[in-house]
Each structure stands twice: as structure tokens, then as C-alpha cells.
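Summarise this fold before class:
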Amino acid sequence: MSNHYEEFLKRLVQYRLQVNMTQEKIGQVLGITQSQLSKQELGKTIMTFHSLCILMDIGWDVDFLFTGECSRREPSEVSAILEGMKQASRRSMLEFIAWALEKGIEQSGNELSVEEQREISLLKLRSSTGIKQPIMYEIRKILGVAQIPMAEKIGVNIKKYRSLERAQIYPDAELLLDIYEATGCRPSLFLASDRMETLIIDGLWSRVSPDRQKDILAITSQVDKFLRK
């Protein structure tokens, strides 16, 4: 077990205590016994992808468990506009939103982190292709590497990597941590890939200053009206 995974486990216990939940209670939520959860917290067994999805669904900041940094993803009006659009216009709006958020963060005096750069790249990729692929595939395309080097980066054999890229299997907590460290892609995006675009937009929105938010929202509303004609 790596030192980084040990840190993940420390934050897991810390978070559980902060939300005032016992091992027994969390075990009930996850559909496992208190003994099984205890083994996971001690690192004797690895927390599953399914368990992480459940923790995220009940409101836990799963990215904090992996990175140690709080992840703010409050619903934004911009993502609501995107969700209300027809598929024919969605690609154009997504392309505009990706550009506007990137500029908005820069104009707010904030430097884009590696994670934010990856997220903007994901939005741009989705807007250019109009196709939702498994996120492991999209991340590899963004990084511009072949499958074998990508498998080596995250520490798995090529057979397992190909299964991950096709979403035939899903990474457990330890592998998700390795993927995050190798790619800079936040684990929450893997856990909620069906709403990945909304998660990204809402997270980036919190990095834009209030003045720039007003400007972006006003322009986005105008673009929305234009595309609906």
C-alpha cells in the first residue's frame, strides 16, 4: 500500500468522524458489515468503485478524500442553461462555455490548476466530437498517449487497461488514486461520468469572480437565445 493511499484512508476516517457517522452506519449505507468497513479503513481491503459512488451520492466530497483539497461544485445557472438545450445546439453551447470559463478564470486573476486544465480539455473534446466516450478513453486522447504508455502510467497491464477504457471494469479506490496522480483528472468525474459536464462546469464556475460570472451569464443567455432560433 502506497503512502498516498494511506493518506486517503486517514482522510476517509477523518471525514466519517466529521459527519458523525459510525462504521456501522456507513456500512449500512454501503451495504457491507461494520467489520468489512473496518478492514477497508485499515487498508486490509481496498474500497470499491461502487462504495465510492454511494459516498458521492450521499453528499461526501470524494475528491477531498483523494486530494486533500475541498471540491466546490455548487449548481450554477450556466450548467442549467446547458442542460435545458436540445442536442442539436448543445455542442456549440458547450464549446462556448468551455471558452468562457477558461477566460473567466484567467480574468479573475486565478491560475488554472492541472485539474482545471484537464476539465476544460474534456469539455472542448466533448464539444468537438459530440460523442460521449468513457472518460478513461477521453483522458488518454487529451494527454496524447497510446494505450500501452497509458497503462504503464497508471500501473496496470494492457489487458486491464483496455477493459478500463471500454468501461467493462471500474477502478477501485487505490487505482483511482493512481489514475489521478498520473493524469490530474479528479476521481469524482469517473464516479459520476453520466453528469461529468455539469460537474466540471459547476466546479469551474466557483473559480470565476462574481463580476465575471455576471458577464458570462449574460452572454451565455444571449447565445442560448440565438441558438434556439
The mean pLDDT is 93. Residues 15 and 65 are 8 Å apart (CA to CA). The radius of gyration is 19 Å.
